[in-house]
Specification:
156 residues; mainly alpha; 7 helices; globular
Length: 156
């Protein structure tokens, strides 16, 4: 792969990492973007309740709505956002982050069937493709700590 292509994949990896880490921060602290301060997780709010209860639609909506406000779901969701985001930003653990993030995107897509503006395709499917692409091209090896980390693992 050419250097220019590597930088494109590295930029996609970093961008996707921020797309996971930002909602974690906003939901944790209630930064006022998607989450008001009084709805912050640290203020006792549920990071999944509003979406799962009121924004899901389609044939699977009752399943997702039944999970709204469940503390286990809140923890899994928030840990997923945090660890996928940090792994993609750092380049360490891109394989597990890519596949885990793709599963999270699949669930987000399934929670709103059919997508609002297209009968099949929405950003969640595109993000899934990018996340799997990051794994396949080993995007953690460039512009990050992934190469250093993998070399350490080989030496121990």
């Amino acid at each position: 792969m050419k250097d220019k292509e590597r930088y494109i994949w590295a930029a996609l990896r970093i961008g996707m990492g921020w797309l996971f880490l930002w909602p974690f921060l906003d939901k944790l602290f209630g930064l006022g973007f998607a989450t008001a301060p009084e709805g912050a997780w640290i203020a006792g709010g549920s990071p999944t309740f509003g979406y799962l209860k009121f924004a899901t639609s389609g044939p699977l909506a009752p399943i997702f709505q039944s999970l709204a406000g469940n503390p286990v779901v809140d923890w899994l969701f928030m840990l997923g956002l945090l660890f996928v985001g940090l792994a993609l930003l750092s380049g360490i653990g891109v394989n597990i982050a890519g596949y885990s993030g793709a599963v999270m995107m699949l669930f987000m897509w399934l929670s709103n069937l059919p997508p609002e503006h297209n009968p099949f395709l929405d950003e969640h499917i595109i993000y899934m493709i990018i996340l799997i692409g990051l794994v396949r091209v080993k995007a953690g090896q460039w512009v990050g700590l992934g190469k250093w980390w993998s070399e350490r693992a080989k030496n121990h």
